[in-house]
Write a structure and sequence with these properties.
It is a single chain. This protein is α/β, with parallel strands linked by helices and 965 residues long. It contains 42 helices and 24 strands. The strands form seven sheets. It has a five-stranded antiparallel β-sheet. Helix 7 packs antiparallel against helix 18, helix 34 runs antiparallel to helix 35 and helix 34 packs across helix 37. The chain starts with 24 loop residues before the first helix and ends in a 7-residue tail after the last helix. The relative contact order is 0.08.
Amino acid sequence: MGRTHPGRASSGGAHRPAGPGPADPAVLAAGLRRAGAAEVDVSTRRRAEYSTDASLYRVVPAAVVFPRHPEEVAAVLSFCREAGVPLTARGAGTSVAGNAVGTGVVLDFSRHMGRVRSVDPDARTAVVEPGALLSALQRAAAPHGLRFGPDPSTRNRCTLGGMIGNNACGPRALAHGRTADNVERLTVLAGTGELLTARRGAGHGTGSPALTALRQVVRDNLEVVRTELGTFARQASGYSLEHLLPERGFDTARMLVGTEGTCAVTLDATVRLTGSPAATALAVLGYPDMATAADDVPALLPHRPVALEGIDARIVRVVRDRRGPGSVPPMPAGGGWLFAELAGDTTAQARAAAAGLLADASAVDSTVVTDPARAAALWRIREDGAGLAGRAPSGAPAHSGWEDAAVPPGHLGAYLRDFDALMAERGLTGVPYGHFGDGCLHVRIDFPLDHPGGTGVLRSFLTDAARLVASYGGSLSGEHGDGRARGELLPLMYSERALAAFAAVKDVFDPDDLLNPGVLVHPRPLDADLRVPAAPPLRRGLAFSYSGDGGDFSTAVHRCTGVGKCRADTTAAGGVMCPSYLATGDEKDSTRGRARVLQEMVNGSLVTDGWRSREVLDVLDLCLACKGCSSDCPAGVDMALYKAEVLHHAYRRRPRPLSHYSLGALPRWARAAALAPGAVNRLLALRPAASLVRLLGGIDRRRELPRFAPRTFRRWFADHDPAPGTPVLLWVDTFTDHFAPEAGVAAVRVLEDAGFEVRVTDRPVCCGLTRISTGQLDAARRVLRRGLDALAPHVGAGVPVVALEPSCAAVLRSDALELLGPDDPAASRVAEATHTLAELLARHRPQWSPPPLDGVEAVAQPHCHHRAVMGWQADERLLREAGATVRAVGGCCGLAGNFGAERGHHDVSVAVAETALLPAVRGLAGGGTVLADGFSCRTQLDQLAGRRALHLAQLLASRLPRREP
């Protein structure tokens, strides 16, 4: 049925380590700087951040260089050649096969060499630097009605250099082709140091030693190239030498695409652009199962769909379980589905094209969608499910390794059945989906890498899976490259002659094997350098329970698979993660960078001082503890939780930063100030006194100190005559009580209008939020326990709890379970009973009509914890139904509790606010309303924008009819 080449377990010969080079990173850094590299980092922390990509592999580099211009790249390569130091080019670091890690110098192009140099709408081309983001290219091309065709799942953070290295595709490659099909010219440096212009027909009369030798390699291997390479569209494994055939014009640019940085380093690229369809229609076809859906693909391809994607019930179940029932819109009946996108000049044409496709399909049910919002919701199942596939149906971590194999589409159904059988035979599970129109299947599998013998399971499965795909005439890789994961297996797919041709090409461009060694040619063993098996468990003495990770901090931080969504700006779509990275553009300030350093802390061989390691504290310093990653990260990384754990251990029974004593103990200071708030405010209004407080409290000198309320909310409530109704317990947090009692007063008014009798606890309570955020977890546990004890009689009687401060609600709903344990009955009962104001009104008073908000034009800043833990949907729905026009801003406000007030954080705090919030507020008409339930959000807006923001309760209360005295 296909080709199978049993052979040795390496391609192009055994792995050949590159020359020794300087072993001492400091010596290496000095040499690189002398050579002309301006930004070299050999710190342990930086090397930890770049020790892995989005793959299974851990390879610690000796140095990381951030080049600014092509001449600097040439200087670094020249030095590496002289010193025998390996060189690995890197873009966004999202390679899933281990293509972007190396033992020598890692060149990160994404920081400084990311320009889209030009767009030529007439020629439909663009010139880009290797670090240019695909999203930036799309933005530059869009005004001309153009776009770059390939659109991988990492489209909002991947770089063009990375796409060129891996020959990236995406779902719409069916219509637009792979990256190789859309590259016109490359300017590259070969491993020999030769500067080359790679294009169709390159090499004639140029005197290029490399291209002359390359032509000879092709002449010597015409038969094998014509018979074994380019046999179907998604044959991405090995080198695509078919582009060098005489009948194909000796296109060196297309051949170099997909060589994974093993032959040359890209300096710039001229890429082709394509038009966007005027209209599209999405046909969703239901089948009994995924394999049956795949059987139907050949009948549908003649209709030339733009995309033809396949999913099954497993991915739908994952999305529904982890995103909620509302995340999955109605779909046709079935257990497997095809999503076919058809294009036309008009919606009617697109719909007619979809109807024609359905007429030739064997689906049991189907629908055609032309509404963009509904189509986007359906596509989101595929996109969200792909991200959530980092956890297998078993609940265990799911890994790359057999990520993107492909077979000719006519064999896909049969291959799927055999592949499922192979997984079942090995006791493995995964969530498959794929580009069915191209015969490409994606899956992450729950290899037991953290168990004894897990590495053997990985090797055995990958070997048998390679034999299986080769038997169908398929490719070990369909778009992500072979990397370290599959290079060793190429002999199972290619003949000895083909492997020798690959090695000959490698020798032409990089005879010393300095460029990305261990990948493709002379590969490392597929089970060498694995990250997870090298990480011991860490379960003893933890402050949080890590119930979703088996009580293991190591498992928790290894949730990060490196896909790099934390590097993308998703604020326009309401995303939050990762505000510090968006402000600084530095890998250390991304969720991924922090996770990598924590993983190295657990490993212990590079970051060696455990919880108190300087590298760990440095990388966590600019973490705002916003919890955006806990909901936005596909793997569910909760860096706020990990930061609190680290601070707990690093400073337990030791002197702490000054801000931990001031801001971490804010509830205590607020209660003391409440004894004489006027006098305290007058004192703090004096510049010397305020300066001294800032100095002793570790507070930035540019931060205004908040004023204490002249009358606390609890004192107001003691004089308040409560209205009769259904009991509800108002959680009176420190911020509402001592700084913003007006929000509490407004909430009481709204709740009473809705028919509630508002109650408060007999004594002041606290959730321990400020202690948690500063890592004072022993104290936080005591404070939280007292608060839960105060709530116990109310919750036990079935009284719901409403919390006005989102971060406090998030502690009661989430962090309390982690701090006290998911089996703690009091924490569990309170978590179930706690609501935001909008949630309470929706669940317990659905018949209540909010006051009309017609004419209200508002910008809303959902608190990060609100969005991450509770979700902001209830607020959005209430405001919409009341008639308000609201734009919810993504991102973080930047103050984030204690973060933005702490000395050394002010500039980043402001930069975070400038990402989305402040521009949105500046664009609001003068009479517009700014909504922010979080006290820190309102404070930031007041101090940076001079705008008074309202709590939802205040907006609602302002529109209620006045109560008669």
